[in-house]
Amino acid sequence: MPPTKESKRDRPPAAEGGRPRGTPQRLGDRVFSGASTGAGVLILVILAGVAAFLIAEAWPALWADSEDVTGGDGIVLYIWPVLFGTLISAAFALVIATPLAVAIALFISHYAPRRVASLLGYVIDLLAAVPSIIFGLWGVAELAPMTVGPTEWLADNLGFIPLFDGPASATGRTMLVAVIVLAVMILPIATAVIREAFLQTPRLHEEASLALGATRWEMIRMAVLPFGRSAIIGGSMLGLGRALGETMAVAIVLSANRDIVSFDLISSANSSTIAANIALSFPESSGLDVNTLIASGLVLFAVTLLVNMGARAVINRRREFSGAN
Predict the structure, then answer these.
(1) What is the recorded function of this protein according to its Swiss-Prot or TrEMBL entry (predicted)?
(2) Which one of 36, 98, 120, 175 is separated from 286 by 20 to 30 angstroms, measured CA to CA?
(3) What domains sit in the chain, N to C, each tagged with a CATH number?
């Protein structure tokens, strides 16, 4: 007799994850599920603990009289210049690093020979492990002197643009150098994430594009880049997170706290960043000054959290596109 099809009412009802109800869960599955849940809860507990600590320690500075806060102008006017420096340095570093990361990832995944691509992949991964103080020393010793001539030309010929208003710094220790150093620092992280996404592009999508007569670039534009769009956003946000919280590299390059707000990238009068300001000022601070620095750290914590939440929202909106579609 031919085999009869099993009716739906004869099948055991399926539980979550496709496992039939009534089937006992294996010990390894229970342990892994519990460990995963515990790890997720632990992350939330740690995050809440950090936020509670920052709020508790920053509270005296938030409600202190303006003349008692460092600078004598109040907590808002104390934090705003360093917050501005943090945002402008991270934003310009991201503008420089993201296109380079995409281009390098495309070269490694779709253009370079296999041996060259493998070697470049190892180099990118190693660059991500270089300590930030090394990048800072490189920026001061090598990059800063190299930018003196070009920044003088920019001030003389493009001074009408606020970014190059000048006067150009004679030492080269400018916000422009800090931006370039930050861009180099975040480049390996963003490149590694984007490269892995490009390598996972479904082969059938690429072959279908080529079979329809597309050139290699058209295939990349129609198949690879849409597939890796979420990875591009995620890698960029990872790099932005490092740029926002970078301390030693910026502190070494700028080496001075300036309570100014300026878009000028080539002048010696630069806005500092929150992390660099805390690193340079904390050893000599006491009392309410410490609470003020922690309050600025609370602002940096909030900015980083908002950036990550925004990136997650953008990525979730792109979930409709899938390489399996």
Answers:
(1) Part of the binding-protein-dependent transport system for phosphate; probably responsible for the translocation of the substrate across the membrane.
(2) 175
(3) 31-317 (1.10.3720.10)
Region 172-184: mean pLDDT is 88
The sign of the dihedral angle between the CA atoms of 245, 250, 256, 258 is negative
Phi, psi (rounded to 5 degrees) for 14 = -90, 140
CA distance linking residue 121 with residue 317, whole number of Å: 30
Cis peptide leading into 167, omega within 30 of 0? yes
Q: How far is CA 139 from CA 119, 172, 277, in A?
A: 25, 9, 18
| pTM of the predicted model as reported, rounded to 2 decimal places | 0.80
Tell me if residue 1 falls in helix, strand or coil.
coil
DSSP 255: -
Distance CA(189)–CA(205), nearest Å, equals 27
Question: Amino acid identity of 24?
Answer: P
How confident is residue 96, by pLDDT bands cut at 50, 70 and 90?
very high
- Contact yes or no for 137/230 (Cβ under 8 A): no
Q: Are 51 and 301 in contact (CB under 8 A)?
A: yes
Give phi and psi for 18, each to the nearest 5.
85, 0
